[in-house]
Design brief:
43% of the residues lie in helices and 18% in strands. It is elongated.
Length: 865
């Protein structure tokens, strides 16, 4: 499209602004509309489902156009952002009436998926992070910022650690170095909205300077990130990106928090997915967060999610959380009172962020006042509580009484949404404003008097004084009386049934009223901005309030579910024992029918005596649920929550690994078995002495012998590991693994009990010592509705395989008869004999014996063929 002088001045202005934001969809304010042009118009019309038209462009060709009313911005903007577009909002920077020539315009905000204050874009119960990543020579640096709350995290580490953090925090947008595109592609196969920045921005000195300038510091040592050079670069890139996107009012970003791997329990992405912490794996399923989250504030909901993904390893802090929950469980009236106050607070964290950036509207300022009043009420409720931990929290709350009083005295209790709508300031705040409001209030009386006076003077009984936006105030005279109109009136409009006029008195009144209205509106806006500026000074105190209110909300959430679901307080210590009595699955228990109780189980794991439990039993018996409930119970305890168990003693776990449930990555050409092996390899490479390892049906994706061999070797590896004795639950269908308990002293056999009654099975869901002798696969197939002909044939095949040990290749000659083809021609016997003679059976391990047996099977198969 031509940008020549043939274009209109408006389009030339558009092109000049568009060139500064080439990657963004530009919303160009023209009067009461936001317009999009050219390619942007085509994109906007499709996403927003609005009409695509054309606009004249002087002597140049017309251009595509699509637009919407400016007051509908909050409706349409979120749709564009959620579609992945970066949206530049270009506003009129001066009053069109005052402009000489074309109205001055400029971009006031660049909204991206990761940078927004719009409530329609944001999820109130989740953070909205923009992240930056920097690939250094050996390490990666990352920073995460939630602009809507001011939370700023910095970290640095290996690829595995960074992938874990990235999946946990799930940023809405990631910025990276354009020159490191290949490194980014290799780093993750998952989809994220990304944006590439120039290479010069990713320089240590530049980033260090930006951070010091913003925080007003001379060094970053106080933030604890001085030994995170790659992390510093990533954090500086975030600040640069804010400036580039016109986000310059960022006083609410007051600190950086260092995220360290050793502070939290290691949960890799496989484990988060397998345990269904945030998202269920099945449609219609339930994630753990849905059970745990009983919070009543958005801040609490966001914090609870972080607690779930970052469970603690520090025993003292865990015990403090548990002690607070215990106190709230025991003092139910206090808990109820606090919850009632919390329900009225709203999103205090994002409210004060809007104050910081000057985007808070009058109604939100009143909401801020009410939230702070509830904080004051919470302070009063906690004042006399004889519990040190709650007293400490109470001491850190700020009532902000002066600010509350100022908002209360200044703003109407039900102000308009926007400042230009008028009527937002209380009486007696400003004498000049009171005088202007009086003029506008008494104006109606003046009009009544004027109408009465002119009606009497002209003898026109049906005379009306009215107003419209086009003509202003006017006198309306029916046609029947237009011959009585005085000569000093000025005709303004002719209608079918009447004439409209103006008079000198009406002109003077209009000028006075309009002047008073404009002056009052301007004065109200000034008073409001002064109030907002005063609130800015309270950002640190209010952010501190939001932090502690969120914590209190989480404690109350834990207390509520502990009381309702009959959870118990776990004993968490520095030991290595894991002993759960009467343990239940927190999600399944709540989703069972009312008349059905969950069967609890006991679990005992100790690195010195019972390090590994091999669990056998049929499908549907509850092996996978048992594995998951142990992991979820440990997680809940180390979050600070009570747990679904009669009692629980938990030595702090530092890593939880799961290989539970089938997963695949067919889009990347990886089978279920390949993914299983990848995840299992990751576990084996990252073990620690305090790891909790949960493995379910390892090896089922390949041949029986391969599967048994791999599973057998894994159990041996975990048992014989030279450094770590990771506590392990190993569920399997391979009954052969029960043999391991005979030679490995810390391996114990358990099975999920099943009762067989008249060739039918009853799942008892009870974990008992010993091994299971049957898989009951045919019974399960029968319960699933398999055709009877198939079931009968399966029983015949099973009976035959049982007779021959199930270890020799068989060929079925017909439906009722089997012929085993054991050996080929006689001349091959000598080769097989030589192979057997070469083995020393006494020296073979069980796994080697299985491998040799598999090799014999393959030789016989070749002979027969």
């Amino acid at each position: 499209m031509s940008k020549s002088v043939d274009s209109t001045p408006l389009m030339r202005q558009y092109w000049a602004i568009k060139e500064k934001y080439p990657g963004a969809l530009l919303l160009f304010r023209v009067g009461d509309f936001y317009e999009t042009f050219l390619e942007d118009a085509v994109k906007a019309s499709k996403v927003l489902d609005i009409a695509l038209t054309k606009r004249s462009n002087g002597s140049a060709a017309s251009v595509a156009l699509a637009g919407f009313p400016h007051h509908a911005l909050d409706i349409y903007l979120p749709k564009l952002v959620k579609a992945g577009y970066r949206v530049a909002i270009c506003d009129q920077l001066e009053d069109a009436k005052q402009a000489k020539g074309i109205v001055q315009r400029g971009v006031t905000e660049l909204v991206t998926p990761g940078l927004s204050f719009s409530e329609a874009v944001l999820d109130t119960r989740a953070n909205n992070y923009v992240a930056s990543i920097f690939f250094d020579k050996t390490l990666l640096g990352m920073a995460f910022l939630d602009l809507s709350t001011g939370e700023f995290f910095v970290t640095e580490g290996t690829t595995d650690y960074m992938q874990k953090i990235l999946h946990h925090l799930a940023p809405s947008e990631i910025v990276f170095n354009k020159k490191q595109q290949t490194l980014w592609n290799d780093f993750t196969q998952d989809f994220f909205h990304t944006y590439g920045l120039e290479d010069w921005i990713f320089q240590f000195d530049y980033a260090y300077g930006l951070l010091n300038d913003h925080f007003g510091t001379h060094s970053l040592k106080g933030f604890g990130i001085s030994d995170y050079p790659a992390g510093i670069v990533a954090a500086g890139v975030i600040l640069h990106y804010l400036s580039e996107t016109e986000h310059k009012a960022i006083k609410h970003i007051r600190s950086m928090v260092r995220l360290e791997a050793h502070q939290y329990v290691w949960l890799d992405p496989f484990t988060v997915r397998a345990l269904e912490l945030l998202v269920p794996q099945q449609v219609g399923g339930t994630a753990l967060i849905e059970i745990l989250d009983r919070t009543v504030t958005p801040m609490g909901a966001r914090l609870l999610k972080k607690w779930l993904l970052f469970p603690l390893k520090e025993v003292v802090v865990i015990q403090e959380r548990l002690a607070i929950v215990e106190y709230l469980v025991e003092d139910a009236p206090l808990a109820t009172l606090l919850v009632n106050h919390l329900k009225q607070i709203g999103d205090l964290e994002r409210l004060i962020s809007k104050v910081a950036v000057g985007r808070v509207n009058p109604r939100e300022m009143v909401a801020l006042k009410r939230a702070l009043q509830q904080v004051q009420s919470i302070q009063t409720a906690l004042q006399s509580i004889p519990f040190p931990l709650l007293q400490k929290m109470n001491a850190q709350l700020h009532g902000c009484h002066t600010l509350v009083d100022r908002i209360d005295e200044t703003l109407q209790e039900q102000p308009p949404l926007l400042t230009h709508q008028g009527g937002l300031i209380q009486p007696h705040v400003n004498d000049q404003l009171d005088a202007l409001n009086k003029i506008m209030r008494t104006g109606k009386d003046y009009l009544v008097e004027l109408q009465k006076k002119e009606s009497q003077r002209t003898n026109i009984p049906s005379l009306k004084v009215a107003y419209n936006r086009v003509f202003g105030y006017y006198l309306e005279v029916p046609n029947a009386h237009k011959n009585k109109v005085p000569t000093d009136w000025i005709r303004k409009q002719t209608l079918a049934h009447a004439e409209r006029y103006s008079s000198e008195a009406l002109k003077q009144y209009e000028a006075q009223i309009l002047h008073a209205g404009e002056e009052a509106q301007l004065l109200e806006q000034q008073l409001y901005q002064a109030l907002v500026a005063e609130a800015v000074e309270y950002i640190p105190q209010i952010q501190e309030n939001a932090k502690h209110i969120a914590e209190l909300d989480c404690y109350l959430s834990f207390a509520k579910q502990a009381s309702e679901y009959h959870y118990s307080k776990p004993m968490v210590d520095d030991g290595t024992l894991l002993h759960l009595k009467g343990n239940r699955h927190p999600v399944i228990e709540q989703r069972l029918p009312i008349d059905k109780a969950y069967t609890p189980n006991d679990i005992y794991l100790d690195p010195s005596s019972q390090q590994i439990i091999v669990i056998t039993g049929p499908n549907m018996a509850g092996k996978s649920a048992l594995l998951r409930q142990v992991a979820l119970t440990v997680l809940m305890a180390q979050m600070g929550s009570f747990v679904p168990a009669a009692s629980a003693q938990i030595g702090v776990v530092d890593k939880i690994f799961t290989r539970v449930g089938a997963s695949d990555n067919l889009a990347q050409g990886e089978s279920t078995f390949m993914m299983e092996m990848t995840e299992t390899a990751s576990i084996m490479h990252n073990l620690s002495d305090r790891s909790l390892v949960l493995m379910d049906e390892i090896g089922r994706g390949t041949s029986t012998y391969d599967g048994i061999s791999i599973a057998w070797a894994l159990v041996e590896y975990l048992h014989h590991h030279p450094r770590y004795k990771a506590k392990t639950l190993f569920a399997t269908h391979y009954h052969e693994l029960n043999e391991l308990a005979k030679s490995l002293p810390r391996v114990k056999n358990f099975n999920v009990a099943v009762q067989e009654i008249e060739q039918k099975i009853l799942f008892l869901h009870k974990l008992v010592p010993g091994s299971s002798q049957h898989s009951f696969g045919i019974h399960v197939a029968q319960m699933a509705g398999m055709p009877s002909m198939i079931l009968e044939r399966a029983k015949e095949v099973l009976a035959h395989l049982s007779q021959v040990g199930g270890k020799i290749h068989t060929q079925v000659e017909n439906v009722q008869q089997y012929q085993l083809k054991l050996f080929g021609p006689d001349e091959t016997l000598s080769d097989l004999k030589a192979f057997l003679d070469g083995m020393d059976i006494d020296l073979l391990t069980p796994v080697e014996a299985l491998l040799k047996l598999n090799e014999i099977k393959n030789r016989i198969k070749r002979f027969n063929n």
